Amino acid sequence: MHVASTAVLISEVGPRDGLQSIKTIMPTLNKKLWVDALFNAGIREIEVASFVPARMLPQMADAAEIVQHAKTLNGLTVLALVPNLKGAEHAILAGADKITIPVSASAAHSLANVRKTREEMIKELKRIVEFRNAHAPSIKIEVGIATAFGCTLQGLVAEDEVIGLAEQAALAGVDDVGLSDTTGYANPSQIKRLFRRLRGAIGDKAGAAHLHNTRGLGLANCLAAYEEGVTSFDSSMGGLGGCPYAPGASGNVVTEDLVFMFEAMGVRTGVDLDKLFRAREVLQAGLPHEAIYGMVPEAGLPKGFDAYKENLR
Length: 313
Known about the structure:
Blueprint: E1 9-12, H1 14-18, H2 28-40, E2 45-50, H3 63-70, E3 77-81, H4 85-94, E4 98-104, H5 107-114, H6 118-135, E5 140-146, H7 159-171, E6 176-180, H8 188-202, E7 206-210, H9 218-227, E8 232-235, H10 255-264, H11 273-286, H12 295-299, H13 305-312
Parallel strand pairs: 1-2, 1-8, 2-3, 3-4, 4-5, 5-6, 6-7, 7-8
């Protein structure tokens, strides 16, 4: 077990992962207000959009405008998802600080999600890195190995293939490579084993945990990853999210619950929970007919929680 860090980064993916997973299209103004509220709560990395054709994901048609707005928030890392070189060019042109690229460990999911084989995605990744190096060397590139813990389309995914893909991505020149439980199949033992192998294979390039709560193990899996030395966690406000190309894949880990868990443990997130709950109200105002989830926002903070936290410092 690694020596646990005293601080973690919470990377909010709701404005991208959450919004692309529902049929409702949040108005651009509401998206901006939500991003502002998340930033005001102390979130310092937000995946604000994905750069894909609007005909495929009309929820992301205003991606460039949202990136440009987010760039006005001083100190925020503005993250955008891109599936290919064209998307990367558009994201970099819009001003994203960091781009994330999904590379599926499942051969079936790769074809369904990005219409490319895994081998073709590694080649595409190399082209994106070359473009970044030539035109925007300050932009960070991360890869998320999707379906790393199992796939609703093909079932089991070999761990050797997951780690092999991560090694290929690292060799392609990206800044870090994380693991994604796209389908909510993972359990804590599996999380520990794979993240330990990931760090052993690519060292400091081992990146974020992107975990789902589909089967109720989201927080347990985050804790397991943290105990293996992971310090960056993707989560989605209200538990919005999933993958339209992985049947049955439902919501991400709830940001509000994840922040509470870490803060209750004395692990700093930099996030103010009361302000985070207010950001949740902004989200609900923008999606008045969508269900959002979360245990802590419903139950409230324990009495004396702030004093308790101070005693942990």
